[in-house]
Amino acid sequence: MPIQTHANAWILETQQTAYVLGLHASGRLVHLYWGPKLPFVSDYPGDHQWTIGSRPLEEFPFNGPDMFLREEYPTSAGIKFVEPCLKTRFADGVRDTQLQFEQAEILSGAVPELRLYLRDTVYPLRLVLHYRVWEAYDLIERFVTLTNEGDTPVAVDRLWSAQWHFPLGGHYYFNHLNGRWLNEFQLLREPLIEGAKVVESRRLTTSHHHNPWFAVDRGTTTEDQGEVWFGALAWSGNWKLVAEVTEFASTRISLGLNDWDFSWRLDPGQSLSAPGSLAGYTAQGFGEASRHFHDYVRETILPHGNTPHKVLYNSWEATLFNVDEESQVHFAEIAAGMGVELFVMDDGWFHRRDSDHAALGDWWPDERKFPNGLAPLIKRVNDLGMDFGLWIEPEMVSPDSELYRAHPDWAIHYPTRPRTEGRHQLILNLGKPEVQDTLIALLDRLLSENNIAFIKWDMNRNVSEPGWADAPGDPREIWVRYVQGVYRVWDTLRQRHPRVTWQSCSGGGGRADLEILRRADQIWVSDNTNPASRLTIQAGFSHLFPAATLESWVTDMGEDFLPLDFRFHVSMCGVLGIGADLRKWSDEDITAARKWIALYKELRPVIQQGDCYRLLSPFEQPFSAVQYVSKDKTAGVLFAFLTHRLDPVPPLIVYPRGLEPERLYRIEGFEDTRSGTAWMNTGIALGLGSFSSTVRRIWNASPA
Ligand code: GLA
Fold this sequence. Notes:
Blueprint: E1 3-6, E2 9-13, E3 17-23, E4 29-36, E5 51-52, E6 55-56, E7 86-89, E8 99-107, E9 113-120, E10 125-134, E11 139-148, E12 154-165, E13 173-180, E14 183-191, E15 195-201, E16 213-217, E17 228-233, E18 239-245, E19 251-257, E20 264-266, E21 271-273, E22 277-282, H1 285-301, E23 312-314, H2 316-319, H3 325-338, E24 342-345, H4 375-383, E25 387-392, E26 396-397, H5 402-406, E27 426-427, H6 433-449, E28 454-457, H7 478-496, E29 501-504, E30 522-524, H8 531-541, E31 550-554, H9 564-572, E32 575-578, H10 587-609, E33 611-616, E34 623-629, E35 635-642, E36 652-654, E37 664-667, E38 673-675, H11 676-682, E39 684-686, E40 692-700
Parallel strand pairs: 23-24, 23-32, 24-25, 25-28, 28-29, 29-30, 30-31, 31-32
Antiparallel strand pairs: 1-2, 2-3, 3-4, 5-6, 7-12, 8-9, 9-10, 10-11, 11-21, 11-22, 12-19, 12-20, 13-14, 13-16, 15-18, 16-17, 17-22, 18-19, 26-27, 33-34, 34-35, 35-40, 36-39, 37-38, 37-40
Helix pairs in contact: 3-4, 6-7, 8-9, 9-10
The chain binds alpha-D-galactopyranose.
């Protein structure tokens, strides 16, 4: 039974774990347990009593009970100074929310759900806490819905999705992803000490700088063993994560919509839901935590599920805006000859787009470059046996564009301030329904008139002057309404064109999160395509996202010091693409590319659909390795890389993982047939010199 009740507590059990919350004698909803599943329902603990000597702590005036009770969803109420999840203001000026539990509801189904209904003690405001149990993935999904049942508006100044509590008494480490444009997903690890640590986005998108993902451990956890509590927020706009250790040594992470510059006018009868936050527990290290998320992403949220991704070519880094029918056909012919399956035309194809100074918003083919529209190019690409894909950046407008000249007021701006341009462009206010409708019409037409199989959806600047003069509610709702608008446009186009594969790009990995992956099948992880940089970017990305969502091109970046094989191997760790200037590639390069593309197609099911094991971290040393194993454990592949290291290099040993202990395997490059246990415990020695790499297939050698 995934959801049970026992002695005023609700017990949520997944395959391996349990999450328990209960109703405290004071009426508060408190967190009781999160860890391995226990044998008996009666094993789950009640709450701990805090005392000074033998007297309960709440008898002393500087510590209201809320300071040490681990509330599941604290509000700003009572004597409480921990981070609340909800802040409201009522019409009469009252600024706290005092919630009382009313009832619980358990919904069965494929994803069982516990709903807890709470209501303010004085005002007609209702809050529902939702807990969904994703049994197979050991994940709990939480979100909340706030409803104004009164007849005056309520201002919502903060609405978070969840507060996740870690077992009392521990000293924890906070692992998170940090970075910047061209260097996303860098893994950071730091001890959590008393006080609050904040990571967030204020940039309108998920951001290159931090990702709404966390993993918390007690300091000794490795890739393969140890406890990890891990989670993420499914939201593509401003978000905030607060990791807090209270003076009562209670460690918790709260996350949700960012409350910076935010307020929402909740009108009578209206509801506002916070995005979902998913979290899980494992005792098998960071690797297992990632694999839970990978399975969840592939099997439950990706629009096309486990459908394999094609090898693509894109000429952006070779041509920039300089595209036209003839030159693109030339690239397409070379690409097809190498075994490429999807030809994508990037920026530069639409009405008067010759540089980044103009044209965003005018989403029809440029008459000079494509006098007969896109059809002849697409036909040629299709005749060469490839699908055709296209780049768009729908949320943007260039001041020098027909769209802007017609609707200058559609750009996000403050009427009295100059409009700060980024890359010579402004952002359309996608909170406005008329903007959404215009984009839907323009892009629907593009997709209806052309045989387009793939769209790269880009978003190339951060926000400034976030005004909204005629906002329907509080202008600060823009942060949420904009993202809801992006979702609406994308969802509508998806629904009308269900076969199209979409990629989420925001100058690289600026919009990578669990919610965008309900629309996008894959993510353009970074504009940095230098394979040496990619090693860490891709390793960080893999903590949350599966290889099937990681588009990775072989380009000319790094060619000065990295061999082509190395560049291919790095990109083969995700969804392989090519973005190099093929006009400059020698016959040997083309032949090598053909070989790697063919091998990638063979290995693709294991890489995209199998389990990922990070064997050696590029964050820690110049020798790194990653391995993929098919779900049935009959096939695998191992990639290893050495960047610079001074000779003499000690033997480079890697220990494969994830093999079935008693099954026999062969590993490419080694003569012997050995059991999975043997390979995993004796390891394999790889002879790599500086800036070299290797790929090793792993085969089942057990008799059928
Ligand atoms: C962004 C993307 C690039 C490319 C350019 C086109 O920077 O990340 O891959 O599409 O835009 O302008």
